[in-house]
Design a protein that fits this description.
Length: about 300
């Protein structure tokens, strides 16, 4: 016979990660048993009438405490997709949703403008296997509504690359949206190795720079972008500064590229995401000098 802890875990999992009090009673648990389960940390009370396993991810717990399901960039991160750094919790609540609470205290009511670190998407929530988290495509659709277009494309690139959606699903989703949604949103390319590469590709395209992603150069390997014949653009990921071995390896690559006749421009995550004008100026200046073409022999 299964232990009470196992029965609770199975029941919570069967209900999409969180379970209501009445569902516990319907499954045969009594009030004294639930009180003991809470006291022994078999389950945790998320908000009035709702319980989850201990160790529930803080973002999922806080979203349900507020009164919704995790979505947009917060949901994308839990799915393992690229998303811009943010301390803001994004969740979706039905248009008729009520009784919202703050993310840290289920006893304190939340008004629509009360917490700058909570972004509520007032949408009809689609069916999903989880009560706590929207599916990847639904998260991406919320990103496209909420975030700059290049962030939405970067997240979609990572979802296609990870096999969580297929490219046709993305195009079908944006085709159902109003005309302003199209155009750049259709420019997905799962060859991008990181979100900052996707962002760079779209922003360079806006100034008519054709940057071919993930080009293989013999003797070096894959480079992030190649412009023209010989201008290589490398974009470091957000985790780059914490990896000294990669730092040294990339300096060796840059030296090898220079030896082979390539001009290399390398940009940090911070430059791409927060100081884009200096990236754009550097690239356009290099092109104006002819760094993207081999000198005439």
């Amino acid at each position: 016979m299964r232990s009470q802890r196992n029965r609770l875990e199975l029941l919570i999992d069967a209900h999409g990660g969180i379970v209501a009090t009445h569902e516990l009673y319907d499954a045969g648990f009594t009030q004294p048993e639930l009180k003991r389960a809470i006291g022994e940390h078999m389950i945790v009370r998320v908000r009035q009438g709702w319980y989850a396993r201990p160790g529930l991810h803080p973002d999922l717990l806080q979203a349900w405490r507020v009164g919704g399901r995790l979505s947009c960039i917060s949901g994308a991160r839990l799915h393992g997709l690229w998303a811009p750094r943010s301390d803001i919790l994004h969740l979706v609540v039905p248009p008729n949703g009520g009784r919202l609470r703050t993310r840290d205290d289920s006893r304190v009511r939340l008004s629509r403008l009360a917490d700058p670190l909570v972004d509520i998407h007032w949408n009809t929530t689609p069916d999903t296997r989880s009560r706590l988290l929207l599916e990847p495509l639904a998260c991406l659709e919320d990103i496209a509504r909420c975030q700059p277009v290049e962030f939405a494309v970067a997240a979609a690139d990572s979802a296609i690359r990870a096999g969580l959606i297929v490219e046709e699903e993305w195009h079908s989703m944006i085709a159902r949206r109003p005309e302003p949604w199209r155009g750049e949103l259709g420019c997905v390319d799962p060859r991008a190795g990181s979100g900052s590469e996707s962002v760079s590709r779209l922003r360079l395209g806006r100034v008519d720079v054709v940057a071919e992603p993930q080009v293989y150069i013999a003797g070096v390997g894959w480079v992030d972008f190649l412009i023209g014949e010989c201008l290589v653009i490398e974009v470091d990921g957000a985790e780059y500064h914490t990896d000294p071995q990669r730092f040294e390896a990339d300096r060796m690559r840059d030296a090898r590229l220079s030896h082979l006749g390539y001009r290399v421009l390398r940009f940090s995550y911070e430059q791409v995401m927060f100081r884009w004008p200096e990236v754009e100026l550097a690239v356009l200046s290099a092109i104006a000098r002819g760094d993207h073409r081999h000198p005439a022999r």
